[in-house]
User: Which sequence fits this backbone?
């Protein structure tokens, strides 16, 4: 597993909001099931002293850090405050930051990521479902019921499409090491390259499913940079040019980032690409037949 | 959202980058008071929200004598189906050399990317392919409000020094206007100095509110209607309506339709945690697309509850056939509700899509 384990204490920024409260509940239900630490502190400015599902709330990340051992943070604050939340956490010394928030202006994201990099923090997202390592830890909003423990890593720019793939894998008896949603925005912190590098150094992970979509060329950059066996799926083969397909980053612009040329480049690097989600489990099995 | 040329030019002018003398007119009559300022030769450019307007007859040369008549003609035209309501009348420049300058968001470095080439004016994509070495680039740190001088030197090479301030000012525009793209092509030198002969600015859709825009003009009427409900919606031209939750899953559903030989009518992502009323609006919206014969609903419930979805589908009460795939939270109850009303339910996305393609074949 990567980015954290049972012993990672999690801080939730935006703890008293509707989303924050709901997901603190689900994250800690999961933590109890697997015997992990889960969410140990919440932060909402002006709400110090409150509790959310028994988790104490602080005004600032610094205050929370002085009372708890915190290894990662998950952000649920509104778009206008999310970049600031990333910077506050990076400045306080948290090194893994998951930003669930959608609709953050790109200029804000670029600044927050540049700042986080300066502080030595890695950011997953924004506009992502977070991550889940079955049997270890859940940081974010992924529905835990679909997952099973195993040795396939999953990296994706999407949310529900990832759940669909995980569901298919689990039904086929293929468990997962860590499932990471890196986010649907054009500018995101951890990209395929970063996550694949971590998977390469993770002894549990033997193969990776890489779920990409139209826009940019980060899927190909990732596939080029790793020796891990990969199966890929690219969404948006039927996406028209210059139209944003739900995600801010899912757009074919200036004739670049279309699904067909992405698929062609992945295949050129020797990566098998599924035409349908339902083909993925069999293709993963095929990988294991080749490499084990 | 893409700004119209005159809006982009206004932004550039406010940033103190020289632009040609120009006037926005809404009738041929409005041109008359500006004829002296425009001089003997000027250009009339239709301000329509569509690309390739030059080739479509939307840009015409004019002079003092025939200007009003030509403007009259242009106002009567349709450019790619759009009526001409506004024209930018602009002075013609005595161009000595054309350059290309653009600032975009670079996904790979996660920073702004500034591109400059002395081979401007022509199609930049062709230059990028045939002479990539002619395009110079720098990637400034977004935490700095100004580009450091060394980067400007790297970018400009032997190009005239007076272009430096234009780059610095355009970078400020890029940061302050929440641009995804700020481009001057061509940037021209003339005996009177440097000018932005054309300008293109795309504003981040996620920043329209703080930039003072109330509507996104890039969206169709139905797409705007969808935006009010918080749906991501794209209109296409097939017969199979699509409703999914999550952008990736909805895209994958569209792709599967193509895989099985059908054509999707739209992309609609209802978002997470949709309640019955939202689902009802989504179904009605898709049903209102004239080409839609059948609707595929493909929802994987995490936060989304299947019984809420079922109630929404039933409440919509539309005439077209709806084929449903629901999985996740409260699945059994959702299935019960829909089965009771004789809706067709199938277990996987492959099955619902195959069925929809059969129905429309």
Assistant:
């Amino acid at each position: 597993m990567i980015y954290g384990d049972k012993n990672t204490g999690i801080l939730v920024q935006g703890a008293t909001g509707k989303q924050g409260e709901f997901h603190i509940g689900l994250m800690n239900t999961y933590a109890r099931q697997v015997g992990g630490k889960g969410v140990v502190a919440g932060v909402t400015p002006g709400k110090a002293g409150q509790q959310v599902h028994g988790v104490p709330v602080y005004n600032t990340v610094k205050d929370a850090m002085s009372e708890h051992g915190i290894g990662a943070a998950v952000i649920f604050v509104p778009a206008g405050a999310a970049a600031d939340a990333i910077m506050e956490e990076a400045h306080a010394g948290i090194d893994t930051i998951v930003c669930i928030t959608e609709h953050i202006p790109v200029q804000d994201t670029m600044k927050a990521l540049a700042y986080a990099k300066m502080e030595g923090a890695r950011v997953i997202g924004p506009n992502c479902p977070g991550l889940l390592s079955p049997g270890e830890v859940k940081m974010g909003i992924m529905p835990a019921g679909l997952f099973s423990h195993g040795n396939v890593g999953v990296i994706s720019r999407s949310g529900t499409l990832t759940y669909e793939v995980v569901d298919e894998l689990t039904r086929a008896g293929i468990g997962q090491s860590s499932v990471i949603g890196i986010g649907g925005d054009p500018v995101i912190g951890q990209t395929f390259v970063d996550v694949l590098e971590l998977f390469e150094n993770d002894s549990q992970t033997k193969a990776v499913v890489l779920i990409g979509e139209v826009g940019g060329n980060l899927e190909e950059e990732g596939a080029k940079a790793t020796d891990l066996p990969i199966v890929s799926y690219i969404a948006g083969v039927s996406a028209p040019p210059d139209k944003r397909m739900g995600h801010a980053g899912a757009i074919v612009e200036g004739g670049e980032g279309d699904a067909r040329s992405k698929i062609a480049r992945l295949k050129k690097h020797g990566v098998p690409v599924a035409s349908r989600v339902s083909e993925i489990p069999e293709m993963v099995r095929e990988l294991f037949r080749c490499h084990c | 959202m893409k700004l119209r040329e005159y809006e982009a030019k206004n932004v550039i002018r406010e940033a103190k980058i020289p632009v040609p003398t120009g006037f926005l007119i809404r009738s041929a009559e409005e041109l008359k008071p500006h004829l002296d300022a425009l001089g003997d030769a000027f250009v009339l450019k239709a301000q329509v929200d569509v690309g390739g307007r030059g080739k479509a007859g939307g840009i015409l040369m004019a002079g003092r004598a025939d200007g009003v008549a030509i403007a009259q003609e242009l106002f009567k035209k349709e450019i790619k189906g759009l009526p001409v309501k506004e024209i930018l009348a602009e002075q013609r420049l005595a161009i000595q050399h054309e350059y290309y300058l653009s600032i975009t968001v670079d996904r790979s470095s996660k920073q702004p990317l500034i591109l400059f080439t002395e081979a401007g004016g022509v199609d930049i994509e062709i230059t990028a392919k045939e002479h990539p070495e002619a395009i110079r680039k720098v990637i400034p740190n977004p935490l700095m409000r100004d580009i450091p001088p060394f980067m400007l030197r790297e970018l400009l090479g032997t190009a005239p020094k007076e272009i430096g301030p234009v780059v610095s000012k355009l970078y400020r525009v890029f940061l302050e206007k929440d641009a995804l793209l700020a481009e001057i092509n061509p940037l021209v030198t003339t005996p009177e100095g440097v000018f932005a002969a054309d300008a293109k600015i795309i504003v981040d859709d996620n920043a329209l509110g703080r930039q003072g825009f109330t509507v996104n003009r890039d969206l169709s009427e139905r797409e705007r209607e969808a935006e009010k409900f918080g749906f991501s919606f794209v209109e296409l031209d097939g017969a199979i309506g699509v409703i999914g939750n999550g952008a990736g899953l909805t895209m994958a559903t569209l792709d599967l339709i193509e895989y099985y030989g059908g054509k999707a009518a739209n992309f609609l992502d209802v978002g997470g945690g949709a309640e019955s009323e939202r689902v009802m609006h989504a179904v009605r919206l898709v049903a209102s697309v004239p080409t839609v014969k059948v609707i595929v609903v493909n929802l994987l419930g995490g936060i989304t509850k299947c019984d809420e979805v079922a109630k929404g589908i039933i409440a919509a009460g539309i005439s077209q056939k709806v084929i449903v795939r629901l999985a996740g939270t409260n699945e059994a109850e959702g299935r019960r509700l829909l089965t009771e009303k004789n809706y067709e339910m199938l277990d996987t996305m492959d099955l619902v899509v195959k069925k929809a393609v059969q129905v429309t074949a």
Summary: DSSP finds twelve helices and 18 strands in chain B.
